[in-house]
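Problem 12. The chain below contains 469 residues. Write out its predicted structure in token notation.
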Amino acid sequence: MRVLKRKHLLLISTAFIAFLTSCSKEFTKDNYTAYFGGEVTNPTNPYVLFCKDTEVIDSVKLDKNNRFFIKMDSLASGLYIFKNEPEYQYVYFDKNDSIMVRINAKDFDNSIVFCGRGDQKNNFLMELYLKNADDKSKIFDVFDDDVTNFLKNIDSSYQSRKKFYTSKKVDLKWNDDFDVYARAALDFDHFSKKEIYPLAHQMRTGEDVYEKLPKDYYAFRKTIDFNNSKLSNYSPFVVYLSYMLNNVAAIHYHNHFTPVDLALKTNINKLDIADTLIKNKTVKNTILNNIAFTYLLEDQNMVNNQKFLETYHKYSTDKSKKNEILKIGNAIQSLKIGNPLPEVSLVDKNNTVLSSNTLAHKKTVIFLWTENLSSHLIAAHKKVLALKTKYPEYQYIAINLDKDQTQWNMVLSKYKFDNIIQLRAKDFEDLKAKWAIMKVHRTIILNQDGSIKNAFTNLFDVNFEKELR
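Solution.
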């Protein structure tokens, strides 16, 4: 769990200070020049990407001091995204804003501080984001509460956030366009908790509370503009829609469905509801794509996948994502039980290139990790060390997804996870495509002949050890 603590902005170079000082000059009404720059400590990627929604506007390489600078001669006001992959965050630009940011990529979100013209509203968004993230780290026990105590808890938290939002809105006097995002960050975090509660409570306690919810429990849904294209790629909104669709599409009387058929029925329900509820094509396609990615990576029933994709293709008009989802569907099909694991290139500690086809001379467990997720790195290796003792007939292979060979070796030297075969992906994009890797919490089990026993499992699944027996 991250420690949610703001960092102080360290000293910026003389050149950057000169830049910030120059920001006070007068601009003409038709001048839309904007500046964005900063410094990335411990970068995970040599490039910073500047994006509008899913489109990359500019890509700039960090200099020898890990600094970057972008001048944009014509930048419309609005919300943008900056990335030092795999991490990203939002930055809002008004006309003529000149914004600098300092980031420590090892603690990406917590370290971000903006300065320059336009900094205060962006620091507000980051502070609200961190407050909400702090809430998320504590919310799971709250889902165990009865309805009255649950609502009391989240309403108290929401009122505290709303007071913070209102005071900043008065102080900073931001415009209506920025307020769309500020209000969304405030409201959708709260709405998401309300959508999650009935499902999470039943899962955690076994109690179905749907009949106990107040009649106006979901009244907030009537206030939501589901067709607001400004929010189509804004995480608080997209995440909320995902939770809402999970809730609305849930089938409560499902004893006659098998688990795989229930998953198919539920996710087709989601597609149907999204098509009915959302008329804006941009928003609809974003949500349909999210449903498809999630379903295909969590359910590997090939017949059901085809049925699901037929409905998805009927509703989606996003040709580029259709192709991407089709590729994922094909990759998943190649990962069926009994198939050989598709070949990828890996490197060992000496940077020697190996084929994945040469690895399975005995039963094998393959798991993934990245330095950016240190808690998972440690937990996964500890889990595997325990499994090695109980199931010594397996070999255990850890595949690192990072690009830096030297840094990878340094991490291995630091932790000293003995007796686990350590390799690194030579080309992560190739591995991602062939093995359908969309999240690091994936584990692959191979039979002694190298064929797939299960390509879609998880070390931390409660039934994982049953797969090894």
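Discussion. Residues 176-205 form the longest helix (30 residues). Students who got a different answer should revisit the alignment rule from Section 12.3.
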